[in-house]
Amino acid sequence: MPPHPAPARASTGNSAAGSASHTAAHTAEFLRTKGLAERGIANAQHSLGFMYVNGQGVAQNDELAVAWYRLAATSGVEQAQYNLGVMYQKGRGVGQDYQQAANWYRKAAEQGYAAAQYNLGWLYAKGQGVAQELRQAMHWFSQAAGQGDAGAQNNLGMMYDSGKGVAQDFRQAIGWYRKAAEQGYARAQFNLALRYDNGQGVQRDAQQALSWFRKAAEQGYAPAQFNLALRYEKGQDVAQDGPKAIGWYRRAAAQGHASSQFNLGLIYDNGQGVPRDEATALGWYRKAADQGHAGAQDNLGLRHEFGQGLGQNFAEAAQWYRKAAEQGFASAQYHLAQLLDSDSSSTSTSGVEADPVQAVDWYRKAAEQGHLRAQFDLALRCENGIGVAQDDQAAMAWYLRAAEQDYAAAQFKVGAMLDAGVDPSPGPGVDPARASAEAYGWYLKAAERGHAMAQFALGLRHDSGHGVPQDYAAAHDWYLCAARQGHARAQFNVGLMQLGGQGTHADLVEASLWLERAGQAGIEAAARYVRRAAERMNPAQRALFASQADLPRAA
């Protein structure tokens, strides 16, 4: 809710002062007005102050403007009281003084001057020059709104919308937004569009929302232009139209709208509806980042870290990550943690000093916001005592939070920690049967998402009957899933089971091929079983094995 504009847009109280069309006429009017002002005519004194503010017929001079406004204001001219308040609020021609601004606004407001009522309400809302008092802000906005002041009507809508200074009431909010919007007030048009879009206080109506967004956008209101661009980009409530999206993003970006600049960067980066242009993308990212857009700052950090479109520079990457991280942007907090992590950072190569303790701090900040990989990496560090005291309970807690987001690696780790006797719930001892059943459940979740170590763990359980009925067929199937992903011990176990026909039909050739793969992966015992299988093969089998031995196994 910004204050009303500076005195250049206020009423002069004298229409002739603003109607002259050339310098001579302005000068003549200035001389006439000055003569009247010097004779003590209060309205002329106000008009003369207005001329000095705008350099109209005379050199611009804020100090003289204040002097003439003060004379007129002291005589009770409400426009002069308002304009003198503006000069104090802006610090033009006089030291900035919110108390004096409030004093002069009040004098004009009590005479019913709507613009002064609005600005006095604004000072109460912000606590500038007066104690912050939302009821007083509400009072003065209501006075101005009752006179048709669109800005005050919009601000009343915002107060009812947010429940600040008054009980929250979406219907009242919409009523005030509509009054202002129908006067062409762009902010209110945008706010009314948002209510139609989300159905708060009114039945959701996508077309009404779109209509009000467009009205505000066409007046140059950047947030509405951005919102309209998003709809064209995503095809939300309108036919998808990339060129229109880019056009609206450009109009908002030209006004410095950071999110529009960032989205233009993404569009050029991905070649979405335009030829891919990394340099243009970086230019838009930098504009947004320089304005504090956290996503753009994180994106620049990534490009500096990996040398995408510019020279690799880890120190620059860390600076951009930190800017975004300090705004609470979880992705940047995670990326900064990785850069500081002793496992991934080296003072000799990165230009960023490794700091595992600080890395853990940033992992934690990101993890607490629900960042999946940060939760997992923090758990790893708690489990292994890297940058933080070793703490199995803390590790289990973070693994669980990541596992509950369906992260297979975390689901496996929860199962493994349960198997190791770490109980996620506080209390005396661990119930082995319950822990085993829970571990199986987590292994199964991870295995179904393709996690090879979880698949192998399930194979072992079914193979040995640990916590489940012994089932060689199920064991073979899970081992095979892991083996196909290159898990060496699973390859060895599949080979043994196929060699002996355990849980599957015996197949000397297939068994030998899996055993050979396991041997190549470092399982020393595999070679002995390959030789034993070869001794049992007939010539045809040996030939088949020889022809396939060097071929990769099918997935």
UniProtKB/TrEMBL annotation:
Record region (Disordered): 1-24
InterPro entries, sorted: Sel1-like (IPR006597), Sel1_AlgK (IPR050767), TPR-like_helical_dom_sf (IPR011990)
Biased composition (Low complexity): 8-24
Segments crossing the lipid bilayer: none
A Pfam family hit: Sel1
Protein name: Cobalamin biosynthesis protein CobT
